[in-house]
TrEMBL record:
Annotated GO MF terms: dynein intermediate chain binding; dynein light intermediate chain binding
InterPro entries: DHC, Dynein_heavy_tail
GO cellular component, one term: axonemal dynein complex
Any GO BP: microtubule-based movement
Name listed for the protein in its UniProt record: Dynein cytoplasmic 2 heavy chain 1
Domain named Dynein heavy chain tail: residues: 196-637
Length: 739
C-alpha cells in the first residue's frame, strides 16, 4: 500500500469532496453506498495523491497515515491523522511545538520524566530557532521598513527580550543596532529570571515583580536613544501580566489548597495574590500617573490595566477567604462540636474544581460551589458568633484590644451570618473608629504648623531633613486613617453611620494629602530659588576649583557645600516617597552626585589639616614641622596642567584623583608620625613616673634596671630620624635631673 498524503486547500475543499462523493456513488456497489463506504473511498482516493510544494497562500488540510496498513473500519480512527497548515509550514510547526508538544513533553510530569534530557534540550532549541526564523521572515522585520509596532510574534516576555537581541545582531543600520543593544542591556536584569521562571519560588517572583517595574520604567524613560514605542510597551506589560498569571497558577496547582496545612496554603496564596496586585498596581501607576507626567516620552490615551490578572488575584483571595473561614471555625469550635456540625466535610462542594483556573466560563461553577459551602457552614457560624459576642463584651472597655480583635478575626466577622449576629458589637467598633479619626485629626491640626521635634510640632525621625520628616510623619497618619477606612469598609458598610464616617475620614485623608503636597511644593520652590543664587552653596560648577586656603584663619575649605549633601539625601528620599523631582533640581543633584565621593574624601583631609595642631603635643610641634610644611606645600600648590598654572577643578577627574591620592598619602604620613610621637611621649612619662616611685635606698637595683630600660629605648630611637635624637635628648635631660 502506498504511503501517500493529500493536501486540500480549505477554500476549495467542499467542491472536491462533492466530486469525490459523486464518483463514489458511481463506482461503489449499491451495498457499499453508505457513510462508511464513501469514507473508505475518499480515504483511498486521498492516499493515491501526493503532496506538492506550492507558493499558494491557501490554508491546507493534511491527511496522513501512521502505518502502511490497509484502511479498515476498525483502524480508521487509529491510523489516520488530520492536520492543518496555516500561513506557512514553518509557522504551523512552530505553533504546534510551542503550544502542543513542548508543554506536554517538557512540563507534564508523566511524559517529561521518560523524555531524554538531550531531546528536551533539542526541542527547546527547535522552538527558539523556529521563532527566530519566523521573525526574520516577517516582512515587518526586514530591510529599512522595519516596524516595531508589530507585536504579533511576541507572546512571552522572553520573545520581547530575544527580539532586541536579534535586532542588535542583525540590524541594517548602526544607530538601530546601538539602540537595540541599549534596550537589550536594560532588559538583562530580568531576562534570565523570566527565561527560568519556573525554577523560582512564589516569594522570589514577588521581588522579581518589583525589579520588572523598575526595568520597564528605565526602558520607557531612557533618553540616550529614540523612545520605546507605546504599542510595544503596552504589549510587553500585557504579556508580562499573562506570564506572571500562568506562573502563579502552575505553582499553586502543585498544592492541595483544601487539604494541605493552612499556614503553607496561606503563605503561598498570599504570595500569589501579592504578585497579581503588585503588577496591576505597577501598570496602573506607570501608565496612569508617572509616564503620563513624563513630558520627554508621555504615555498617551488611557492607562493600561491587566484585567485578567486582577480577576485571578480576586479568585485567589476568595480561595484564601474560604480556607481562613474554615480555620477560624475550627479554632473556635472544639472537636466534638466540629463533628456534630460536619465541619470536616465543608470542602466537598469544591471537589472536581480547579480553584486557580480562572476564566469567565468557570466563574458560575465556582460561585455555585461557594454558595453550597456557605450553606454547610451556616450552623457552625451561629455557634462561633455567640462565642465571639461573649469574648467582645469582655473587652469593650479596652478600645485598642477591641480594634485588634476585629482586625484579627476580620475574615470571619465580615461573613454575612456572623456579621448579622454581631450587629451591636460592630456599631461599637464604628463609634471607636470615629473617635480614633477625630483624635488623629486634632493631633495633626495641633502639630502641623510647628517644627519637627517641638512639643507642638511633627514627631521627628533620625537623619531626616524637615521636609522629608514632615512628609513621613503625615504618611504615617495617612496609613492609620486608611487602615481605619479599610476595616470599616470590610465590616461596617451596612451600618447607618458608615457613610458619615467614610465621608469625614476621606475628608481628613484629603487634608493630609494636601499638606503633604504643600510641603513638597514649598521645598521645590525654595531649592529652585537657591539654585539661582550663586552664594547659596547649591551652585557647583564642573569647572570650579575644588578647594581654597583661607590665608586669614589658615583653614582649608572644600568648595562643596554641606547643603549639597543634604540636597542629595532629600532628592533620593523624596523620589523614594513617589514625588516627581523638578528637572532643574534633578540636574543639580546629578551634578552633585557625580563629585560626591571625591568631595567626602577631600572634606576628611581638610578636617585633618584644620585640626592636626590640636592633636599635637605642644612640645612636639617643632619635631613635626618638616612633615607639616610638606603637607601644606601640597595644599598651597594645588595646580594642574603644564607648569602647574591652572587650579584643579571638578571636571578633571584624572588629575583630581591623582591629587587626592597625593593629599591622602601626605596626611597619612603626618598622622602616623604624630601618633608615634604621642605614643613614645606617653611611654616615657609612664616609665619616669615609675622611676620616681622607687625607693633608691632599698631598691637601687630596680632603679638601675628601669633607667637602663629607658636608655635602651633612647638608643633605639637615636638610630631613626634626627627628631627622635631631639626627643631622646629631651628625656635624658629630664632623667639626669631626676638622678
Amino acid at each position: 500500500m502506498l504511503e501517500i498524503t493529500y493536501q486540500v486547500p480549505v477554500n476549495s475543499r467542499m467542491s472536491i469532496i462533492k466530486v469525490l462523493i459523486f464518483c463514489a456513488n458511481q463506482v461503489l456497489p449499491e451495498c457499499y453506498q453508505n457513510t462508511h463506504g464513501i469514507i473508505f473511498f475518499l480515504l483511498f482516493f486521498i492516499l493515491l495523491l501526493q503532496i506538492e510544494a506550492t507558493d499558494s497562500k491557501n490554508n491546507v488540510l493534511v491527511f496522513f497515515k501512521l502505518r502502511p496498513d490497509v484502511i479498515t473500519e476498525d483502524n480508521l480512527h487509529s491510523n489516520i491523522l488530520v492536520s492543518s497548515m496555516l500561513d506557512s509550514p514553518i509557522n504551523t510547526l512552530y505553533q504546534a511545538v510551542r503550544q502542543v508538544f513542548a508543554p506536554v513533553l517538557l512540563k507534564d510530569e508523566t511524559w517529561s520524566k521518560t523524555f531524554d534530557p538531550k531531546l528536551q534540550k533539542l526541542l527547546s532549541e527547535l522552538e527558539t530557532g523556529l521563532s527566530t526564523v519566523l521573525r526574520r521572515s516577517d516582512p515587518n522585520c526586514m530591510g529599512e521598513k522595519f516596524s516595531e509596532d508589530d507585536v504579533q510574534a511576541i507572546l512571552t516576555p522572553t520573545d520581547e527580550f530575544q527580539f532586541w537581541i536579534e535586532c542588535a545582531r542583525h540590524g541594517t543600520k548602526l544607530y538601530s543596532k546601538e539602540r537595540a543593544s541599549h534596550f537589550k542591556d536594560l532588559f538583562e536584569d530580568i531576562a534570565k529570571d523570566y527565561c527560568n521562571l519556573d525554577s523560582l519560588s512564589l516569594f522570589e517572583v514577588v521581588d522579581l515583580v518589583e525589579t520588572t517595574r523598575d526595568t520597564v520604567d528605565s526602558v520607557w524613560r531612557q533618553t540616550e536613544h529614540d523612545p520605546y514605542p507605546q504599542p510595544r510597551m503596552h504589549n510587553l506589560l500585557d504579556v508580562i501580566g499573562s506570564c506572571l498569571g500562568r506562573f502563579v497558577q502552575r505553582k499553586l496547582a502543585a498544592l492541595n489548597l483544601w487539604e494541605d496545612a493552612f499556614h503553607i496554603v496561606k503563605e503561598n496564596l498570599k504570595a500569589g495574590i501579592l504578585i497579581c496586585e503588585q503588577w496591576a498596581s505597577a501598570c496602573e501607576y506607570l501608565t496612569g500617573q508617572l509616564w503620563q507626567r513624563y513630558t520627554l516620552h508621555q504615555w498617551k490615551n488611557e492607562k493600561y490595566f491587566p484585567e485578567s490578572l486582577v480577576k485571578l488575584g480576586k479568585r485567589l483571595d476568595e480561595v484564601l477567604t474560604v480556607r481562613t473561614l474554615h480555620e477560624k471555625l475550627t479554632f473556635f469550635l472544639p472537636s466534638g462540636e466540629q463533628n456534630a456540625l460536619h465541619v470536616a466535610q465543608v470542602f466537598e462542594p469544591f471537589a472536581g474544581l480547579n480553584p486557580v483556573h480562572y476564566n469567565p466560563y468557570t466563574e458560575p461553577l465556582w460561585k455555585a460551589a461557594v454558595s453550597q459551602f456557605e450553606r454547610i457552614i451556616a450552623p457552625a457560624e451561629k455557634k462561633v458568633a455567640s462565642k465571639l459576642k461573649k469574648f467582645i463584651s469582655d473587652i469593650q472597655d479596652s478600645p485598642q484590644q477591641l480594634l485588634q480583635t476585629f482586625q484579627k478575626h476580620k475574615e470571619l466577622i465580615k461573613h454575612p451570618n456572623i456579621s448579622k449576629e454581631l450587629l451591636l458589637e460592630r456599631e461599637t467598633l464604628l463609634a471607636r473608629l470615629q473617635d480614633y479619626v477625630k483624635d488623629y485629626q486634632t493631633d495633626f491640626e495641633t502639630r502641623c504648623h510647628g517644627a519637627p521635634g517641638d512639643v507642638s510640632g511633627p514627631l521627628s525621625g533620625k537623619n531626616l531633613s524637615e521636609v522629608v520628616n514632615n512628609i513621613v510623619w503625615v504618611r504615617q497618619l495617612e496609613l492609620k486613617v486608611d487602615d481605619a477606612i479599610k476595616l470599616a469598609e470590610a465590616l461596617l458598610s451596612d451600618l447607618s453611620g458608615f457613610q458619615s464616617f467614610h465621608q469625614s475620614a476621606d475628608s481628613f485623608l484629603e487634608q493630609l494629602k494636601v499638606y503633604e503636597q504643600e510641603q513638597f511644593d514649598d521645598w521645590s520652590r525654595n531649592i529652585q530659588s537657591e539654585l539661582s543664587n550663586p552664594k547659596s552653596g547649591l551652585c557647583i560648577q564642573a569647572n570650579s576649583p575644588v578647594m581654597e586656603l583661607d590665608h586669614v584663619f589658615g583653614t582649608l575649605n572644600i568648595l562643596y557645600s554641606d547643603r549639597l549633601v543634604t540636597l542629595l539625601r532629600e532628592v533620593r528620599q523624596l523620589s523614594a516617597l513617589g514625588f516627581a523631582i523638578p528637572a532643574k533640581i534633578q540636574q543639580a543633584a546629578n551634578t552633585a552626585q557625580k563629585f560626591c565621593k571625591q568631595a567626602v574624601i577631600l572634606k576628611q583631609v581638610a578636617h585633618f589639616y584644620n585640626s592636626i595642631d590640636q592633636q599635637m603635643i605642644e612640645s612636639q610641634k617643632p619635631m613635626m614641622l618638616q612633615s607639616a610644611l610638606a603637607f601644606e606645600q601640597i595644599i598651597k600648590h594645588s595646580k594642574s596642567g603644564p607648569g602647574g598654572k591652572a587650579q584643579i577643578t571638578w571636571d578633571n577627574p584624572r588629575e583630581l584623583e591623582a591629587y587626592i591620592q597625593k593629599l591622602q598619602a601626605a596626611a597619612e604620613r603626618l598622622s602616623t608620625e604624630n601618633r608615634k610621637l604621642r605614643k613614645w611621649h606617653t611611654n616615657f612619662i609612664e616609665k619616669v613616673i615609675s622611676l620616681m616611685n622607687i625607693d633608691l635606698l632599698r631598691q637601687q637595683q630596680r632603679w638601675k634596671d628601669g633607667l637602663q630600660e629607658l636608655r635602651t629605648g633612647f638608643a633605639s630611637l637615636e638610630s631613626q630620624a634626627g627628631k627622635w635624637t631631639f626627643i631622646c635628648s629631651y628625656w635624658l635631660v629630664m632623667l639626669s635631673n631626676l638622678h
